[in-house]
Write a structure and sequence with these properties.
306 residues; Glycerol-3-phosphate (1)-acyltransferase; two-stranded parallel sheet; 8 strands; transmembrane; acyltransferase activity
């Protein structure tokens, strides 16, 4: 453990580790993707998808090491992770920071099928990373403003169709579909702009979660309701805190929720179901907010007792 190194050396070591392992594993995944394009034979493509998924899990192990490589980092994980890698799950998570992605990689590396994220389309053009995500069939979403949709009505629902196509691919390999339901990372500015009714969260967007359940609800074994928090002064850590060894605690609370019949419906066309689902998701978010609030109170009490 290289815990006594100065911050610049920690950053260099962690950055090089992340860069080299991502480049090596990413290139390997892209090579597998090239063979998938050249060999459009169903059994062969299934085998190659399994290989690519295995390489993705190897990358998750490599990223998990960032939390311990140069600093003592404490994990506080509560809840149910009695899962198995050959199932299908859907994650509903809050989004505090880009560090959340590495946190989910740490959880997934042993306990669940490898996750698939809904990504902004701009990320597709990032060398190695974007191309590797494309090989892994991660959906790239293109957001359209209301003004653009008003001018070009045919673009309405384009993301829904992207979700549908991507989820169809997920049916052939054990997968954990990740929904950061807030749609963006938390910041105080966004919190004010959206007039959020929650103290630590942005209002959730129900569409992506509802459409994922509509398409794959009969295949998902459960919903993993994951709450992520970073108690202390770095409540919204950036990647710099991770690379520099200043991230000391990560708190994760996992609840396994059953998928009942009333959570599957036509969100786009059934107004009654849409209202019901939004109410259900908002209630989950109130519960998440209470979990984070209790954590901060516990950390404050522990600090005062020192």
């Amino acid at each position: 453990m290289l815990t006594k190194l100065l911050i610049p050396f920690r950053v260099i070591i962690n950055f090089l580790w992340a860069l080299v392992t991502t480049a090596m594993i990413g290139v390997a995944i892209i090579i597998v993707g090239i063979f998938k394009l050249l060999l459009p034979i169903a059994p062969v493509q299934a085998l190659l998808s399994t290989v690519a998924n295995g390489l993705f899990r190897l990358w998750a192990y490599a990223m998990s090491m960032l939390f311990q490589l140069t600093q003592p980092m404490s994990w506080h994980i509560e809840g149910d992770l009695a899962l198995h890698k050959k199932g299908w799950y859907m994650i509903m998570a809050n989004h505090r920071s880009w560090v959340d992605v590495f946190v989910l990689m740490h959880l997934a590396r042993r306990n669940m099928p490898m996750p698939r994220f809904f990504l902004k389309r701009q990320l597709l053009w990032i060398p190695i990373v974007g191309w590797g995500c494309w090989v892994l069939d991660m959906p790239f979403m293109r957001r359209y403003s209301k003004d653009v949709i008003a001018k070009k009505p045919h673009l309405k629902g384009r993301d829904i169709e992207t979700t549908r196509r991507s989820c169809a691919k997920f049916k052939h390999i054990p997968t954990t579909v990740v929904n950061f339901c807030e749609g963006t990372r938390f910041t105080p500015e966004k919190h004010r702009q959206k007039d959020s009714p929650y103290r630590y969260l942005l209002p959730p967007k129900a569409g992506g979660t509802a459409f994922s359940l509509q398409i794959m609800g009969d295949q998902f074994e459960a919903i993993l309701d994951i709450t992520i928090a970073y108690p202390g002064k770095d409540d919204r850590p950036v990647v710099w805190h991770l690379l520099s060894g200043q991230l000391r605690n990560v708190y994760v609370h996992v609840r396994t929720l059953p998928i009942s019949a009333d959570l599957i419906g036509d969100y786009g066309n059934d107004e009654q179901f849409k209202t019901h689902f939004q109410k259900w998701l908002n209630q989950r978010w109130h519960e998440k907010d209470a979990i984070i609030e209790a954590l901060h109170e516990k950390m404050e009490q522990a600090h005062q007792q020192r």
